[in-house]
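Today's session is about reading a structure prediction critically. Students often jump straight to the picture, but the first step is always the sequence itself: look for stretches that repeat, for charged clusters, for runs of hydrophobic residues. Only then move on to the predicted structure, which in these notes is written as discrete structure tokens rather than atom positions. Here is the chain we will use throughout the hour.
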Amino acid sequence: MAGAAKDTPERPAEEEEYRLSICGKLCYAIGGAPNQVAGSAAAFFLQIYLLDIAHITPFHASLVLFVGKASGAVTDPVAGFFISKSRWTKIGRLMPWMLACTPFTVVSYFFMWYLPPFVSGRVAWYLTFYCLFQALTTLFQVPYSALTMFLSTDQKERDSATAYRMTMEVLGTLIGAALQGQIVASAHVSHHCTVNSPVNTTDSWHDTPSFPDPSNPLPHQAKVYMIAAGVIGGVYLLGIVTFFLGVKEKDDPYALNSDRAIPFCKGLGLTMKHGPYVKLTASFLLISTAVQLEQSNFVLFCTHAADLRNHFQYLVVTILVSAAVSIPFWQKFLQRFGKKCAACGVSWMIPFAVMLVTIPNLILAYFVAFISGLSIAASLLLPWSMLPDVVDNFRLQNPHGKGHETIFYSSYVFFTKMSAGIGLGISAAGLEFTGYKPGICRQSNDVILTLKILIGAVPAILILIGLFILLFYPITEESRKETKLALEVLRRSHQSTENLDDHKEDTSV
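Below is the predicted structure for this chain, in token form.
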């Protein structure tokens, strides 16, 4: 009884120790925003920039997009391997990686939007800097994502930090798309194009193309893209400074000092055999690919297939505002009804996207943009909220290993990036196959049909298959609570063992 009475007052203090302040959550969330700002700008505008500003062929654009995404994907397990081998420093084990890669990320991002004066080597130029950018953002994203596990041991606190992070990342996506859209909008306004002119399927190539004047080494279109890149580079520096000053990384609270880190190859094998992780990854691999296809082809669809070239930046902002304001709603929804139930929100965009494809109307387009934002918010929040539950489940089954968190996060990002790269490469190659030609007012009927399929049918099929796989995801709300209690017992037993060892050392001295 005395022991029980003695333990009672300690628990609130321990709970307070692992509770995160609002300031800490905000600084953690701000740290991930710059990657989303830059990623959003690239997702919405890089493809149309390569086609209509840099004037490389759709095949080469697909090559740049696929190889760039693939380089980022390949970097994920490599980053996970080296990060898992990192030693603890005064500022943590993960923080040094994020600080070191940020300046190089800013430089590579800027040159990714620079129009070189030569023409023959442009494909190699954009391929090099896009690959560098993807690799460097991976070196930031892997430790940043894994840091969730080292902020607190409390599931609610981690879920809350994830909600803050997702809200700020969606806001970052909004800022990136809005900044880029407003700054570069003038680059895509062709004054010679007549709105609602009929589609020319034979002589469209002979329309007056919007190619830059060869005598001007840096045309207006290229200048506005470089201005946007410089602004977003400044956002990167502001975000990393706020993140470093406001976030404190904690060592693994579950691992004994005597526990050894799981070797990377062994840990990767265990990860690939862990049922909940495989089902979660397979599901959101397909869903994230669908979202990537929507993002990368939306501006092209509005410009060439829906006669909304003067509204695309406002439609993009509508999508992202809707996503940003709905993150708190989805956080409350998954807390009350469960995470698997909240996944139904991802499917909301399907019927409305199909309607927009079949009935391209301005009012309908804004409504579809709003609903799509709700679905995108759910697709962004859920995997990063569910992945810590998977890591906890793995921890319970492997209690004497540590350092596995980066393996989970790096391999998850690897699969999602690889699938997105394949999807983007196939979509750009499809435009090449159907005869997309840059710089003209109207594309052929085949190109317009391809854009409609990439916006409507393909994402719908991928989302439905992904949600079907998620039905077999085994972690429920009850099992989460059981895992939480079991891990709490494990943590207390580890603390007791360490205290006993310290006591023995003091006695021997």
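Discussion point for the tutorial: Residues 1-15, 194-217 have pLDDT under 50 and may be disordered.
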